[in-house]
Amino acid sequence: MIKPISSWQNPNNHLEQLLTTPWYRALNKIFSQILLLTHDFYKTENITPTIFPITTGSVSSPFGLGSDSLPVKINIKNNDMYLADSMQFSLEIATRLNEKGAYYIMPSFRGENTDARHLNEFVHSEVEIKGDLNDVMSLAERYIKYLIRGLKDTCAKEIAEVCGTTEHLDNVLNKPFYKIRFEDAMRELSDMPDAFKELDKDLYAITSVGEHALVDKYGDFTWITHMPYKSVPFYQAKEAGTDFSMTGDLLAGIGETLGCGQRVLSSQDAINSLDEHNVDKSGYQWYIDMRNIQQVQTSGFGMGIERFILWLLKHNDIRDCTLLIRDHNKIIFP
RNA sequence: UCGGGCAUAGUUCAGUCGGUAGAACAACGGACUGUUAAUCCGUAUGUCACUGGUUCGAGUCCAGUUGCCCGAGCCA
User: Fold this and answer.
1) Is A200 among the domain residues?
2) Which of A45, A102, A256, A317 is deepest in the core (most CB within 10 A)?
3) Domain-located, residue A225
C-alpha cells in the first residue's frame, strides 16, 4: 500500500519526501499521463491547444453574491495586475479564432488560504467551444471518461496500491453521469437545513454539506445544473424565462471537481448581466466589444486536476496532490 | 475575506491580584569514567512581537499594527 505523507505540513523538508517516496512517484506518473491524455483527447475532438499570458487586468472570479473569491494581485514596475485565476476569457477569444474551440492546461492562481480542498496554485484544465450548455456538459463527460480509461491502462497498478481497488473507475465508466437541476436538488434535500444557505432574500446556494449529500445519493460524477442566475458570475447566460443560469457543476469525491457554463451571447446580454450583477463595467468593456466584433455562442468548463486526482486516489487532502508545495503565505524553496 | 485563539530564553512552555523575568531541554565551562559518549557540578540566557494609552508602576489592563494557528466562507 502507498500512503501520502503530508509533507506540505513542513515545506522545507518536502524535497526529500518528493524525491524518495512512492506516493510522489505515483503522483508524478499520474500527472504526466493526465497531460498526455488531455492532449490526445482534444486531438480526437479537433479542439485546438493554446497558450496565453499568465498576468491579466481582467479577473473572472470575484463576482456574484455567492462569491468573495480573491484573485492574486501582483505589482510589476509599479503597475497593479493579477495572476490569472482562470484562462476562460482568453479561451473565449481563442475559440473565435478556431473552428471548434480551444483548450489549455496550466496553473491558475487563487488568493484564498489553502486547506484540504483548496490550493493557491492548481492545475487548471479548461476548454471553450462553440456550442451550448448541453454540448459542453457532454464534452466534459467524454473528457473525464477518456481520462479514466487512459489512466486504467497506464496507472492501474499505482491507483490500486493507493486505494486498494480500481473498482471506482469502472463504476463511473459504466453509466452516464446523473443530472439534477439546482431547484430539484433543493427540494430533495429540503429536510437537510445545512445543505443550502441563503445568500440574499430568496437566493440560495448549495453548501459543501449539500454537495456531499448529492454525491452520497447519486454517486460520483453527479451534475448539479442551472444554479440561480444571481449567484453565478455575470458571464454565465440566463436560462430563458427563469431566474436560473445555464451552468453545471460536476460533483465527485470531496465536492465540485469541474464547473461549466454557457456564456452570454450578445453584447446587450453582457451589458444587462453586468448591470444585474452590479459589476463595474470599466474592466469589461472589451468583453462587450468582442460580442459586437464577432457574436458567437460559446460554452466552456474548467476542471481542477488535483481535485480529479483526489477522487482518482480516493484521498481527502488536496495538499498531498501537488508535486511542489505552494502556499502564498510562505516563501518556499524550491 | 469574516470569526475565534496565540505571540515570553536557541526550543517547548510557566508567569497567580498590575509590584525588579522562571523551569525543562538544548548550549557553554569544569569534574569524573578505559572515552564516537554518559553522569555529576557549575554558567549565561531575554528589546516579554511592534506602536501608543491607562497607571506611582505594565509581560500582565486598553487600543491599533504585524505575524502565526484553528474554524468558516469561497471556489476547481
Assistant:
1) yes
2) A102
3) yes
Domain membership of residue A85 as a residue range:
7-321
A113 touches strand B (CB under 7 A): yes
CATH of the domain at A111: 3.30.930.10
A71-120 residue pLDDT tens: 787 777 767 778 888 899 999 999 999 999 999 999 998 888 788 888 88
- Rounded to 5 degrees, φ, ψ at A91 are -70, -30
Judge contact between A247 and A225, C-beta under 8 A: yes
Does a structural domain hold residue A326?
no
Determine phi and psi for A282, rounding to 5 degrees.
-60, -40
Interface pTM (ipTM) of the complex? 0.80
Contact A65, A105 (CB under 8 A): no
Enter the C-alpha cell of residue A284: 469589461
A248 touches strand B (CB under 7 A): no
Please list the residues that pair with A200 across neighbouring strands. Answer: A203
Q: Which helix (H) or strand (E) holds A96?
A: helix A88-97
Considering only CA atoms, which of A86, A65, A111 is closest in space to residue A243?
A: A65
Residue A67 CB in 7 A reach of strand B: yes
Nucleotides of B under 7 A from a protein CB: 1, 67-69, 71-76
Distances (CA, A) of A175 to A169, A218, A303: 11, 12, 20
Cα separation, A102 vs A50, in Å, equals: 6
Which residue carries 424565462 as its cell?
Answer: A241
A122 sits within 7 Å of strand B by its CB = yes
Question: Are the CB atoms for A58 and A194 separated by under 8 Å?
Answer: no
Q: For A204-262, what is each residue's pLDDT tens digit?
A: 888 888 898 899 899 889 999 999 998 888 999 999 999 999 999 999 988 889 999 99
